[in-house]
Design goal:
Length: 369
């Protein structure tokens, strides 16, 4: 008998005895023995990966999360040509989850990059092609491996955990938007309403930039927003270029903000209330800069802040390039005008003179007529 086939048959047969073994210590020893037998053998690499996953699960149940994470990271399933795509993704997501459980967010991000989000948008029916001659035969995924759409949700929920650690509100919002687009979620109001609420909150919490503005306007056009009118009002206030009174807004939406703790996905985070106030201040400064080219430190009164706090927020926005402004402290004036390039000024004068001469020439022509 071919030795390769013999080892494969041995591993397959021995794997069936794992679940039948009642004693935990014996089960762990059996898995470790099979791991040693399959180590370095490419023809049983999938079986070895499944064994490691089982051993990691046992370690996790024993509370040894760090040990379970180290075990899982030893196997690079992305190089396994014969493993089903869904099983590969499920394995990598398990690696990411264990890294997040042990608070190793740097490694979790590195592992998550092995999965391209576009892989979840592939049509499964079109993907099933007959293998060509010479191609690797891809094994069927085990029955306990979730479907591609279920894996999509798991992936984005893990990414939400990662971005929550960094308080990256815009990326959290985009993750919730991806979950919101899953057909099974869109069909069930009990699922999409909590997710749409989260999308609205994280959009408002995100610092202003073109991407945030685009997502804000596209969310406002969503018909489902009519089911949660309070949140339509919240987004409408942020989109409208008018000064928002923080105390009025907070009194109106405080209960909804507190209710988020009881919704799917949990609370918005420890810093969320503080960051919400920061976003409203930034919104108000942008509104003032749109309508005024120069303004005194009365700006602080409009923002309901002290002069020092107003100056601090304004400086932070200038540093982050969200705004162009200069502060003349002795005079007490803030100038929002950008410094004009001399060449541009001369070109503008030349264009204006040309327009004026054209008008004079047309007027003379009309008089002579």
């Amino acid at each position: 008998m071919n030795p390769l086939l013999a080892v494969t048959a041995l591993v397959h047969q021995a794997m069936q005895y794992i679940d039948q073994t009642l004693d935990l210590e014996t089960r762990i020893e059996l898995i470790k023995t099979l791991n040693n037998v399959s180590a370095g053998k490419i023809y049983v690499e999938i079986e070895r990966a499944r064994l490691i996953k089982r051993l990691a699960k046992i370690k996790e149940e024993q509370g040894l999360i760090a040990e379970a994470a180290d075990l899982m990271q030893e196997t690079a399933v992305e190089t396994f040509g014969a493993m089903a795509k869904t099983e590969k993704i499920a394995f990598i997501l398990e690696q990411v989850r264990l890294c997040e459980d042990r608070q190793d967010f740097v490694r979790a991000q590195i592992l998550s990059r092995k999965i391209s989000p576009r892989v979840f948008d592939v049509d499964a029916s079109k993907e099933k092609k007959k293998p060509k001659e010479g191609d690797n035969i891809v094994e069927e995924a085990p029955a306990d491996v979730p479907s591609l759409l279920e894996l999509k949700r798991i992936y984005y929920e893990l990414m939400i955990r990662y971005y929550s650690h960094n308080n990256d509100y815009l990326e959290i919002c985009r993750c919730y938007m991806a979950i919101y687009e899953i057909p099974s979620v869109k069909e069930d109001p009990t699922q999409w309403i909590p997710i749409l609420r989260k999308i609205c909150w994280y959009l408002v919490l995100s610092p202003y930039d073109p991407m945030q503005s685009s997502l804000l306007n596209s969310t406002l056009e969503d018909k489902n927003l009519s089911e949660i009118p309070y949140f339509r009002l919240l987004l409408k206030q942020v989109v409208t270029m008018e000064v928002i009174q923080w105390t009025t807004l907070w009194n109106k939406f405080k209960d909804e903000f507190e209710n988020e703790k009881n919704m799917r996905g949990g609370p918005l985070g420890d810093k969320a209330a503080e960051d919400l106030k920061q976003r409203i201040i930034e919104h108000n400064i942008l509104v003032v800069s749109k309508y005024y080219s120069r303004v005194t430190f009365r700006l602080a009164e409009l923002l309901c802040l002290s002069i020092q706090e107003a100056e601090k927020h304004l400086s932070e926005m200038v540093v982050s390039k969200a705004l162009v402004a200069k502060i003349d402290r002795p005079v007490g004036i803030i100038c929002f005008q950008t410094a004009k390039d001399s060449n541009n000024v001369l070109n503008l004068w030349a264009t204006n003179l040309e327009t004026l001469l054209d008008l004079v020439e047309k007027s003379c022509h009309q008089i002579h007529k």
